[in-house]
Write a structure and sequence with these properties.
This protein has 289 residues and is of the alpha/beta class. The protein has one domain: Rossmann fold (3-Layer(aba) Sandwich), CATH 3.40.50.1820. It has twelve helices and eight strands. Strands 1-2-4-3-5-6-7-8 form an eight-stranded mixed beta sheet, sandwiched between helices. α2 packs across α3 and α4 runs antiparallel to α8. The longest helix has 15 residues. The protein is globular, with a radius of gyration of 18 Å.
Length: 289
């Protein structure tokens, strides 16, 4: 793994897969997740191009950053730019998954020179709580509560520790199935196990800050500014970011196209890797990327 330095002095682990060829890709993973979401994706695309794969600060076994209060979507977008500069691969197709969609949109807002195209998988442009309430006061209250709980060591550390146990992982997996975050008959159990163990290894302050930032962030104003080719992918059984969310982004991004996978959930990229890769391949080929 190589290391990139951020503007505020943090170190970020990244890896460049493959060799120079077609337009490079840069992956942006989900909320409190890791590069393990790209276990099929990275080697597949490394056969034809470079793939820049990296971890958010405080994730993937990296130490918690010195300052956690500024962690959020905007900072991760700047971190992506730091990795992009260090990798020195030229403009990339930014591929965001779930929470990574919001980061990808912020990369476009803040660093458009690095973006040649966007692939947005099972995500939203912002304010994920809007399906429950569009009240700004509700968003602020929930985000404040998340930060407060994360700061209570007697609560947050035992909860995070539970995810490092077999019982905790099993419980979290069932919650993922029930909420439409994953399909029981399609999502590899080992992927979910790895995800939850990774979450359990994180500093609760990082988890709280990232989650609160996710709830507060909004990039809907960015959508109409996008001028690069954009592929939006959704699963019609995704209850976390429903198809209606993808359709709204598609309506507001003039250069976008939408592909919906019937019968699949929030983790369609993991559940149907061949089919998702085929959709991305078609998009890349048609746009000579």
């Amino acid at each position: 793994m190589a290391v990139a330095q951020t503007v505020d002095g943090e170190s970020l682990s990244y890896r460049v897969w493959g060799h120079a060829g077609a337009t490079p890709l840069m992956t942006v993973h989900g909320l409190v997740s890791s590069v393990h979401h790209w276990l099929d994706f990275n080697p597949y695309y490394a056969a034809s191009r470079q793939v820049v794969s990296w971890e958010y600060r405080g994730h993937g076994g990296q130490p918690a950053p010195r300052v956690t209060t500024s962690i959020g979507v905007e900072q991760f977008a700047d971190d992506a730019h730091a990795v992009w500069r260090a990798a020195d691969v030229g403009p990339v197709v930014v591929v965001g998954l779930s929470f990574g969609v919001q980061v990808a949109l912020e990369v476009w807002r803040r660093h458009p020179e690095s973006v040649k195209a966007l692939v947005l998988i099972c995500g939203t442009a912002g304010h994920p709580l809007d399906r429950v309430s569009r009240s700004p006061a509700v968003r602020r209250s929930v985000a404040k509560a998340v930060r407060a709980v994360a700061g209570q060591r007697l609560v947050s550390y035992p909860v995070m520790g539970l995810l490092r146990t077999r019982v905790g992982v099993r419980l979290a997996r069932e919650v993922a199935y029930l909420t439409g975050g994953a399909r029981r008959d399609a999502c590899p159990p080992q992927m979910l196990q790895g995800l939850f163990k990774h979450v359990g290894s994180l500093d609760p302050r990082v988890v709280g800050a990232v989650t609160a930032g996710y709830l507060e962030h909004d990039a809907h104003d960015v959508l109409e500014t996008i001028t690069v080719p954009t592929l939006i992918i959704a699963g019609d059984r995704d209850q976390l970011t429903p198809v209606s969310v993808a359709e709204r982004m598609h309506d507001e991004i003039a250069t976008s196209e939408l592909v919906v996978f019937p019968g699949h959930s929030h983790l369609v990229q993991v559940e149907k890797p061949r089919e998702v890769h085929a959709a991305i391949d078609d998009f890349l080929n048609r746009h000579a990327l």
